[in-house]
Amino acid sequence: MAFGAKKIFPIDTKPRVAVGVSLPFTNPGVFASTYTTQQAIKTNLINFFLTGTGQRYLNPTFGAGLQTYIFEQLNNNTEVALEKDIQSIIGTFFPSVIVNDLEITSQPDTLQITVKLTYSIKDTGITDNLEIAFN
User: Is 82 strand, coil or helix?
Assistant: First the structure.
């Protein structure tokens, strides 16, 4: 038995088979597709962070609801609370994603919050990063 072997998701074995829908929706007439686990998970995280809690019909718990933090008093306590929320949300909705680094910066003058996330996917060796700005 091999130790430390990487799992390869079955969807990554067929390079010409699409596994998800890419963001943003800019292609005319059809959606752009994702073809690997890495692309699919990154797109799913972006979709999740940009969705407000309660926005998705028939799935009211889906969505990070990070837009609500924009109108709160932005300070260190808000950033710590936001970081805890993101950690618990990712653990609940994306159990295969491991957060390696999470950096949250806020700019109270422009009401902007920037979330920089570096993550890896369990048992695959895939590491990626994501940066989203809310204003």
Answer: helix
Could you tell me the mean pLDDT of each successive run of 10 residues in the chain, 135 residues long?
57 72 74 82 89 86 81 77 88 91 83 88 87 85
Residue with tokens 């309660």: 54
Q: Is 117 exposed, middle or buried (0-12, 13-18, 19+ CB in 10 A)?
A: buried
| CB count in 10 Å sphere of residue 82 | 21
Q: Name, in order, each residue with C-beta under 8 angstroms of 39's C-beta and a sequence gap of 6 or more.
A: 19, 20, 22
Question: What are the phi and psi torsion angles at 32 (to 5°)?
Answer: -75, 145
What are the respective helix, strand and coil percentages of the chain, to the nearest 5? 30, 25, 45
**Per-residue confidence (pLDDT) for residue 10, from 0 to 100:** 59
Contact 102, 124 (CB under 8 A): no
pTM > 0.85: yes or no: no
